[in-house]
């Protein structure tokens, strides 16, 4: 099925169908990719926000937060990570879009699976014990070796870096503030999936609980998978697994909310709904 994705506003039919499917759902699995956080104001490709936060890197010709693989001195790279993670992960203010999504789910039995590492679900009313984040969490650091299968709270390390960070040069002025593994002294890195060294020990128990919950779905009422903002950067994390969940769960339905890639598999037939607009527009339409 192919859906045009350039509609300037939410059409009535997908919104009405989603309302009906939510009313008929006993369980909801919210599955989210980067598009949800972008719609909520955390767009990694936002050049203006990048310039505001990281003027020194902007002067070097960099224009977005996608800096993995960019060769920078370690004092500049940790300056970037500290500013970026502090902005994305540790903001104290509630996010209106995530709060509206939590209200939409309501008191239905639900889980969250997300490739996002910003903890915005847990920070906005979703139960942390029912959130699976297979790509990690910016709130933790890990050894790059790794010498141990454990992680450390990132906040104290980042606070030390920020205290020694010079915004104009983009450098951390005190090298003693640069973090190292407290166990072996090797380099550390945010606890996010970038390669085989990723330490996933803290996240897999939630994945196991989600698997058991999904296994109960045929006996526990109709399941609705509400997938938001999951495109083709890492389709094997959210997009394709959600199709398979619906494919192998009797009576389950898939709603795919994505302004650029809303297509749903033809084999799911009338159990899949393509919604070709962003999450903020969808929630606006549902509130109308």
Query: In which order are the strands of the major sheet placed?
Result: 3-2-1-9-10-11
Helix content: 25-40%
How would you state the average pLDDT, rounded?
Answer: 93
Return the CATH topology of one domain.
Rossmann fold
Question: What is the beta-strand fraction?
Answer: 15-25%
CATH architecture of one domain: 3-Layer(aba) Sandwich
Q: Counting H and I runs of at least 4 residues, what is the number of helices? A: 10
Cα-atom Rg, whole angstroms?
20 Å
The named CATH superfamily of one domain: TPP-binding domain
**N-to-C SSE string, H for helix and E for strand:** HEHHHHHEEEEHEEEHEHEEH
Shape: globular
Q: Total number of β-strand segments?
A: 11
Main sheet characteristics: 6 strands, parallel
Question: Regions with pLDDT < 50 over 5+ consecutive residues?
Answer: 1-10
Q: What is the CATH C-level name of one domain?
A: Alpha Beta
Secondary-structure-based class equals alpha/beta
N- to C-terminal distance: 27 Å
Keywords: Metal-binding, NAD, Zinc
InterPro entries: DHS-like_NAD/FAD-binding_dom, Ssirtuin_cat_dom
Protein name: Deacetylase sirtuin-type domain-containing protein
